[in-house]
Every structure is written in structure tokens, then in C-alpha cells.
């Protein structure tokens, strides 16, 4: 029979190891570049579709036409294209998207054919990052991102996390309805908070640093929440479950960041 002291020590060590592994994996898989200035999302687009943004600098001392091919990532059913400030090395000063993308165009290329369309000015903000455009690659129509996209993606990621942690909950011997309800509510709240933190990355804070701070915080919040919300067994088991469940869910979620939209 393992003593309570040894059980607590093992839980603490598992927590320390899981946080270290999670942050290390996040650092390896999440880009260290700053947030994109603009992101173009093209649902169900072919992988050979290329996008180029052409920026026009028209100042008293600077008159240039600057074409920039966007970075490409294939995430599930979406092709995602990114233009980052540091990718446009010829521009020293970046005043804000509304200014720097004035009169800018988007060139869509595939199979030797291309067409150039103006980027709607109403989609550009005064910020330097974070503007997102949805592209219908067949028609070339650009629109703002659907307001349903974020909650639907959040629901998808939360469902994956809940499914993984539900398996752990079952193996830990939890059967009461309250325990399962607590699992769902805590995950929805913490995953929503985590998404809000990461999606509001400042231009001078890279993604790796935000993940490094937010994931251990997520672990602690869920551990405390489960400690008070789940009363079916003793507190030691609740803490052990929280650590194990978080480790398991992050082990599944982090690799999926490379394959599914965020």
C-alpha cells in the first residue's frame, strides 16, 4: 500500500514532468515568429494554390511596389496563408495594416493561371497584426471571417480534450454524473480562456513564450477546479487525475496543432 506522502510526491513529480514536456513540445511545434500581419483562410482550396500580396509604398521619400509571396500551411480542410512583418525585409517602418496595405492587391495563382484582386480596405485595421480574410478560391471573392468559425473551432478542440480526459476519468474510477459534468464544464471554460490568451498575442510577444506561460497556468487552474468540483473520491485522487488527464490531453492536442485549424 503506497503511503499518502509518497502518493503526493509522485503526483508532484508527474506534474513537473508533464509541464516540462508540454512546454518543450509547444516550443518545438509552435512558430516563434510574431503574429501574422494578415492571414488569408481558403476553405477546401487545393494545395498548389499560391497567393502573393503586392504592397504599394507611396510616401515623399519611398515609392515602391513590393510583391510578397505568402507563407502556406495546410490545416485540415483549410489552406492558410500568412504575411508577417518580418517577412517584408525591405520595409523598415510598419505603421499599421490600414496604412501599409492601402491599395494592396492579392494575386491568386494556380496551374499557370493567375488573377489579381484588390484587398478590400475595410478588412484592414490600424493594428500591425491580426487581420484575417476568408477567400473563396474559385470565385476570388474575399470576405471577413465568419463569426461562427472561432466558436466552432473552439468546440472542436474542447471536444477532443474532453474525449481524452473522459477516458482518464473512467480509468480513475469516477462514475457519478457530477464528476462527468465537472469535466465538461471545466474543460469548456479553461479551453476558452486558453484560446483567448493565445489568440491575443501582442506583436512583441512570440507564440512560444505565450504557450510557455499559459499551459502551466492551465494545468494549475484545472487541478484546483477538479479538486473542488469532483467529490466522488479523495482529494489526492482528484489531483492525480487532473495531472494525468492534462498530460494525456496535451500529448494529443499539441501534435494536432500541425494538422488542424486553430
Description:
- Helix 3 (149-171) crosses helix 6 (235-256).
- The chain folds into 2 domains: 4-33 and 148-256, no CATH class; 38-129.
- The protein is 46% helix and 21% strand.
- It has helices at residues 4-29, 97-100, 149-171, 177-199, 207-229, 235-256; strands at residues 38-43, 50-58, 63-69, 71-75, 78-83, 105-110, 113-118, 131-136, 141-144.
- The longest helix is centred in the first third of the chain and has 26 residues, at 4-29.
- The model is unreliable at 25-33 (pLDDT under 50).
Key attributes of the depicted protein:
five-stranded mixed sheet, 2 domains, 262 residues
What topology emerges from the helices and strands here?
Elements: H1 4-29, E1 38-43, E2 50-58, E3 63-69, E4 71-75, E5 78-83, H2 97-100, E6 105-110, E7 113-118, E8 131-136, E9 141-144, H3 149-171, H4 177-199, H5 207-229, H6 235-256
Parallel strand pairs: 1-8
Antiparallel strand pairs: 1-5, 2-3, 2-6, 4-5, 6-7, 8-9
Helix pairs in contact: 1-5, 1-6, 3-4, 3-6, 4-5, 5-6
Strand percentage: 15-25%
State the helical fraction.
40-55%
Q: Distance between the terminal alpha carbons, to the nearest Å?
A: 45 Å
Instruction: Write the element-wise H/E pattern from the N-terminal end onward.
Output: HEEEEEHEEEEHHHH
Strand order of the largest sheet: 4-5-1-8-9
How confident is the prediction overall: mean pLDDT?
79
Count every beta strand, where a strand is a DSSP E run of 2 or more residues: 9
Instruction: Write down the Rg.
Output: 22 Å
Q: Based on CA inertia axes, which overall geometry fits?
A: elongated
Low-confidence residue ranges = 25-33
Q: Sheet with the most strands?
A: 5 strands, mixed
How many helices? The count is 6
Number of domains: 2
Quickly give the structural class. Answer: alpha+beta
Amino acid at each position: 500500500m503506497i503511503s499518502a506522502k509518497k502518493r503526493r510526491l509522485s503526483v508532484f513529480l508527474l506534474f513537473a514532468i508533464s509541464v516540462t514536456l508540454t512546454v518543450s513540445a509547444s516550443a518545438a511545434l509552435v512558430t516563434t515568429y510574431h503574429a501574422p500581419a494578415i492571414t488569408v483562410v481558403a476553405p477546401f482550396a487545393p494545395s498548389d494554390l499560391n497567393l502573393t500580396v503586392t504592397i504599394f509604398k507611396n510616401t515623399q521619400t519611398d515609392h515602391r511596389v513590393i510583391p510578397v509571396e505568402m507563407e502556406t500551411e495546410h490545416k485540415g480542410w483549410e489552406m492558410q496563408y500568412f504575411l508577417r512583418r518580418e517577412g517584408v525585409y525591405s520595409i523598415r517602418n510598419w505603421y499599421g495594416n490600414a496604412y501599409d496595405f492601402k491599395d494592396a492587391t492579392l494575386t491568386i495563382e494556380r496551374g499557370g493561371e493567375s488573377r489579381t484582386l484588390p484587398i478590400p480596405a475595410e478588412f484592414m485595421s490600424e493594428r500591425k497584426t491580426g487581420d484575417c480574410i476568408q477567400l473563396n478560391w474559385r470565385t476570388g471573392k474575399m470576405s471577413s471571417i465568419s463569426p461562427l468559425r472561432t466558436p466552432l473551432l473552439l468546440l472542436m478542440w474542447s471536444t477532443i480534450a474532453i474525449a481524452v480526459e473522459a477516458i482518464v476519468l473512467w480509468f480513475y474510477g469516477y462514475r457519478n454524473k457530477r464528476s462527468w459534468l465537472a469535466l465538461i464544464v471545466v474543460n469548456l471554460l479553461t479551453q476558452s480562456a486558453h484560446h483567448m490568451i493565445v489568440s491575443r498575442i501582442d506583436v512583441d510577444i512570440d507564440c512560444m513564450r505565450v504557450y510557455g506561460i499559459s499551459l502551466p497556468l492551465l494545468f494549475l487552474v484545472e487541478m484546483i477546479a477538479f479538486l473542488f468540483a469532483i467529490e466522488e473520491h479523495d482529494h489526492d485522487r482528484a489531483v492525480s487525475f487532473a495531472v494525468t488527464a492534462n498530460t494525456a490531453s496535451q500529448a494529443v492536442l499539441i501534435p494536432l496543432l500541425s494538422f488542424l485549424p486553430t
